[in-house]
Design goal:
Blueprint (H helix, E strand, L loop, with lengths): L30 H22 L7 H11 L2 E2 H7 L4 H13 L3 E5 L7 E5 L1 H22 L4 H22 L4
Helix pairs in contact: 1-5, 2-5, 3-4
Length: 171
């Protein structure tokens, strides 16, 4: 990724042209980490712009995708599935329920558990969310060739594996 600064006139740059934040000297030992941070920030920002069009915030669509795919789930299982924490998931589910996309009910077998289920309104949203993800993918890959896409995916999977191994609890 080429290091450059945004145009001085405040104008947007040409698609594909580097617009990243310059690497601070203090981050010179973490060039890849700095690049991951920048890419993740931009990706989440664009995802947010696209998702707002359908009434969702980043992260909410992931909960919905799993509910559409797997059906009703215990909240604790969604937390594990999405590698989330309880307060974040509680907030996300509450907002989705307020928007009418999920319904929460006590579990029939464990009264301490809450079951989260997608509503009919959320099923109508599914095609729009799928389109948002297709648009986000198209923006993200730009003009990468199929080979470059495959290599990028392999590199990201390795990076994720490295981070997950470091983060894994000691046995």
């Amino acid at each position: 990724m080429t290091q450059s600064t945004p145009p001085a006139d405040g104008q947007a740059s040409v698609p594909g042209e580097a617009t990243s934040v310059p690497l601070p000297t203090s981050a010179s030992g973490g060039r890849i980490s700095h690049a991951i941070f920048r890419v993740a920030r931009l990706h989440r920002m664009i995802a947010g712009q696209l998702l707002r069009r359908v009434g969702l915030y980043p992260g909410q669509e992931l909960v919905m995708m799993h509910l559409w795919e797997l059906g009703p789930q215990r909240q604790v299982d969604l937390i594990r599935l999405l590698d989330s924490d309880a307060p974040t998931m509680t907030r996300t589910v509450r907002r989705l329920a307020q928007a009418g996309f999920v319904r929460c009910r006590p579990s029939d077998t464990d009264k301490r558990s809450v079951i989260i289920e997608p509503t009919a309104a959320s099923h109508a949203l599914r095609r729009q969310v799928e389109q948002v993800w297709a648009d986000l993918e198209r923006v993200s890959i730009g003009d990468l060739t199929a080979e470059e896409q495959d290599a990028t995916l392999r590199a990201l999977e390795r990076l994720e594996g490295n981070l997950a191994a470091w983060h894994a609890p000691d046995d």
